[in-house]
């Protein structure tokens, strides 16, 4: 791991819990929206219907349809969407600095619950690979790169590793911000940390599952779901019933990032992580092996996908991602 020192949060953001709270707050959302109005006005909604039949939604921002050189495909975190503050901030910054961006929603994210009957789970990297194939067929660029946040960062790394031979055009670069390495450890961190982290994801996940019932009432989990208050309860109920996995541990293993998976990535790849991340244990990164293609950068601070420098401006992670793509894409 490379220990980096060039991210220095403002004094009022030294607390990692405050930083992650502010990064997803209504205050930052409003400030970012004010500075990214043209991004949203000029965004093109995209329905990605892959050959496997899965439908995903996305939004594309292109500077010039006649000069398509690089497309950065962005993947959000669990229960986030293309409208998450970090997605808007980063896409706006990349677009202003010369890169086209496509923000892709996972299934059952971004109000897309009606499009596919089966419920989202984190092992579904194959449908993201299929969606990328369709995107490459529809939008011809010289190079395609991936930028992922949290679970989206985990997906980006798996897609680059497993899907490199399945795509019509290989991924040229990957930038992954605070990805979960071992989902079991991440879940334990949520359960053992300040109660509001687990409560936040329980509420978001329950809302998503209830939204699913509006379109597929034949699912019979409402009465079981309503009294649940922990991720453990939800995982134990939903994983064996609504995924291909018989146990929660097997499910977690399906998207655990190992050295074998990371070693199979054939493009320039950077992972950034923070020692004070309250959700992703920094110890999970210690066994990972870097290479001439893979760099792991660890900062003292940054919290979880926050790395704030101000309330409204681009984050340090936005700036680092831009620097990375400028360095490795031709």
Written account of the structure:
The chain has 13 helices and nine strands. By secondary structure, the chain is of the alpha/beta class. The chain has a single domain, classed as Rossmann fold. It has a nine-stranded mixed β-sheet, sandwiched between helices. Strand 6, helix 6 and strand 7 form a beta-alpha-beta unit. The longest helix has 21 residues. The two termini are 26 Å apart. The mean pLDDT is 95.
Layout of strands and helices, then pairs:
Blueprint: E1 2-4, H1 16-23, H2 26-35, H3 37-41, E2 44-49, E3 55-61, E4 70-75, H4 85-96, E5 100-104, H5 125-138, E6 143-149, H6 151-162, E7 171-177, H7 183-192, H8 195-215, H9 222-225, H10 231-242, H11 248-254, H12 259-263, E8 269-274, E9 294-299, H13 316-328
Parallel strand pairs: 1-9, 4-5, 4-6, 6-7, 7-8, 8-9
Antiparallel strand pairs: 2-3, 3-5
Record keyword descriptors for this entry.
globular, 9 strands, 13 helices, alpha/beta
Helix content: 40-55%
Q: Say what the CATH topology is.
A: Rossmann fold
Mean pLDDT: 95
Low-confidence stretches are none
> What overall form do the CA principal axes indicate?
globular
Count of domain modules? 1
CATH class bucket: Alpha Beta
Radius of gyration computed on alpha carbons: 19 Å
The count of strands amounts to 9
The secondary-structure class comes to alpha/beta
């Amino acid at each position: 791991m490379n220990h980096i020192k060039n991210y220095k949060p403002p004094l009022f953001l030294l607390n990692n819990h405050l930083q992650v709270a502010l990064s997803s707050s209504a205050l930052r959302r409003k400030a970012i929206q004010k500075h990214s109005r043209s991004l949203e006005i000029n965004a093109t909604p995209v329905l990605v219907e892959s050959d496997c039949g899965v439908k995903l939604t996305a939004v594309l921002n292109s500077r010039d349809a006649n000069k398509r050189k690089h497309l950065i495909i962005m993947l959000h975190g669990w229960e986030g969407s293309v409208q998450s503050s970090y997605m808007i901030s980063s896409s706006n910054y990349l677009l202003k600095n010369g890169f086209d961006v496509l923000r892709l929603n996972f299934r059952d994210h971004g109000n897309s619950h009606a499009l596919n009957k089966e419920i989202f789970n984190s092992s579904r990297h194959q449908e993201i690979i299929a969606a990328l194939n369709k995107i490459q067929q529809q939008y011809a660029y010289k190079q395609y790169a991936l930028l992922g946040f949290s679970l989206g960062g985990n997906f980006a790394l798996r897609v680059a590793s497993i899907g490199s031979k399945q795509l019509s055009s290989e991924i040229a670069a990957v930038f992954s911000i605070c990805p979960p390495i071992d989902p079991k450890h991440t879940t334990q961190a949520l359960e053992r940390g300040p109660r509001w982290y687990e409560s936040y994801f329980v509420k978001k996940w329950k809302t998503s599952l209830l939204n699913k019932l509006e379109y597929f009432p034949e699912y019979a989990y409402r009465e079981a779901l309503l009294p649940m208050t922990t991720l453990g309860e939800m995982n134990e109920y939903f994983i064996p019933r609504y995924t291909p996995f018989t146990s929660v541990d097997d499910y977690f293993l399906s998207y655990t990032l190992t050295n074998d998976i990371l070693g199979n990535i054939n493009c320039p790849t950077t992972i950034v992580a923070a020692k004070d991340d309250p959700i992703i244990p920094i110890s999970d990164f210690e066994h990972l092996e870097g290479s001439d293609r893979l760099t792991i950068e660890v900062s003292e601070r940054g919290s979880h996908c926050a790395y704030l420098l101000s309330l409204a401006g681009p984050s340090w992670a936005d700036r680092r991602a831009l620097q990375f793509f400028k360095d490795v894409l031709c």
